[in-house]
Amino acid sequence: MEKLIDLHTHSTMSDGSMTPTEVVRHAKEAGLAAMALTDHDTVAGVRQAMDEGRRLGIEVVPGIELSAKSATETHVLGYYIDINNADLSAALKDILIERENRTVRTCQKLNDLGFDVSVEEAKALAPAGVVGRAHFAKLMVNKGYTSSVKEGFELYFDNGRPAYSGRQNIDRFQAVDLIKNAGGLAFIAHLHLTRMEDDELEAFLTELRDYGLDGIEGYYTDYTPPMQAKYMALANKLGLMICGGTDFHAQMKPHIGIGKGLGDLKIPYSVLAAMKERLGIN
Predict the structure, then answer these.
(1) Ordered structural domains, the chain, with CATH
(2) Which residues pair with 248 in a beta bridge?
């Protein structure tokens, strides 16, 4: 039987609804051979996830998803990072401050749109205290303003929508530096959200590749078959590796299943094997 993986998941340490331990158990129950915990701008749950992985016999990759300054959305996934790296730890403290400021800005935008929501209500939905867009989207559902988290993103929280706040603390080069200096591999996540035309995206990735970027997310929940084929071809052209994941958030995005995305996503273990070979991991 083909071994399958999911290298893009979130827990309660950022904007998922399962604890790190629960995510690992869920991945094991789903029949996955390996997974990565890639919470937004934090590694707080990685140790817990890896411990549970060893207990259950499922491979857990230490990871992170860093948000970078961008006119649209640029997220950088890091794999096999040293979660105790001093420079990474210091940077994440500064990033957390900016995330808290962004929470206030998002709430104010919603208030300006006429919605009765507060930062305190959003934080009540975030067990680890780190509020993301998904928490506000869930709050909007709870208050009857939208029918689902997905609708909330489409109407208010996606890039370009009225409650989106995109200011970040680091740029894409700093994100790559933090990951590489922590011993990891750096990949650009969900390429379609950069909203770049093909030529612009190729130039963007070429510049980052020359800087140290290792690869791109070649498998992703929202990719159509033509999109996936295009990104795979681009990775091959530029000599970039690929990673893949569902962007699992459990009940914060209930339409996305771990390991399978919208139902038919299959990410082969060979993707992870290539990463391990690059790093010399047995």
Answers:
(1) 5-85+172-279 (3.20.20.140), 93-157 (1.10.150.650)
(2) 9
